[in-house]
Specification:
The protein has 293 residues and is mainly alpha-helical. It is 79% helix and 0% strand.
Length: 293
């Protein structure tokens, strides 16, 4: 019985870190590191890479855990999040907060000791802006989606800064891609779960837009913006024609899905758009790495 309780507690603490989101953050930080590495990738500093990814993963995990501590009551009011460790009562608030703090501090110390001050500052800003600005703003203004896209787009810039030792145009190009991508991605999620968000008091565009027309327009607009933004790595010289061609083709497919949602504002189209968005980003990141190789 004790072993079962310990296993349950362990899995609950792991759930606090939102492992899939942490994996996504680490993946984007890796691509940023690749972009910031000068010369052949065979000369990449493996120790620096490991410390960058480990520190980034720890800070991302702590950020997700703090987010769940802050949103315990809100999560409890939504069907899709009611089973999380805190609203379900599987973990105490004090333990979760201590866990979040320990992950965040250890991650920042890791980055400070083994990478550089710029990468550490970007990670700290990501943590503070996500937890202290974006999270409380979600129940106050639809603008929270744009605000939240900033910390969500910083990990690749941090990875770039760790390898290059500075912030440069290639890193900013990756930041721009991640920033713009998040908006149609989240609008698709928001539309599918708008009733759940409304019940919890989350103020996002799909909640305050009952017809969905404004949501569809914004989704189409940001996906269209992604078309030129996705080409930025080639324009700043860190990717070649192969990447540009692939990115253009993939973004056209993404845009087509967004257009279908704009013409038929339904949960089914929103789901298709969501799937297109989660397929688009890994494909773009793989293209960038392959082109760099």
């Amino acid at each position: 019985m004790s072993l079962r309780r310990n296993t349950s507690a362990f899995s609950s603490y792991v759930a606090l870190t939102k492992p899939r989101i942490t994996l996504f953050v680490v993946m984007t930080a890796f691509v940023g590191f690749v972009g910031g590495t000068k010369g052949p990738l065979s000369g990449m500093d493996a120790v620096l890479l490991l410390n960058t990814l480990l520190g980034t993963a720890l800070v991302a995990s702590g950020t997700s855990a703090f987010n769940q501590v802050w949103e315990k009551d809100l999560d409890g009011r939504m069907e899709r999040t009611a089973a999380r460790p805190l609203p379900s009562g599987r973990l105490p608030m004090a333990g979760a907060a201590l866990f979040a703090g320990a992950l965040s501090v250890v991650g920042l110390v890791e980055l400070l000791l083994f990478t550089n001050g710029i990468t550490t500052a970007l990670a700290a800003f990501t943590l503070v802006s996500y937890v202290c600005v974006y999270t409380p703003m979600k129940t106050r203004s639809p603008a929270s989606t744009i605000v939240g896209a900033v910390p969500g787009a910083l990990p690749p810039l941090g990875g770039y800064a760790a390898a290059a030792g500075a912030i440069g145009l290639p890193g900013l190009a990756l930041f721009a891609i991640l920033f713009v991508w998040q908006l149609p991605h989240f609008f698709a999620i928001g539309w599918r779960h708008r009733l759940d968000y409304a019940k919890a008091g989350v103020v996002i565009l799909p909640v305050v837009d009952p017809t969905g027309r404004s949501t569809a327009r914004q989704t189409l607009l940001w996906t269209a913006v992604l078309l030129p933004v996705s080409l930025l790595p080639s324009l700043v010289g860190t990717a070649g024609f192969a990447y540009a061609f692939g990115a253009f083709a993939l973004t056209l497919l993404f845009l087509a899905s967004s257009l279908r949602f704009a013409r038929d504002i339904s949960d089914g189209r929103a789901r298709s758009l969501f799937l297109a968005s989660i397929g688009w980003l890994p494909a773009i990141l793989v293209l960038l790495v392959l082109d760099r190789v």
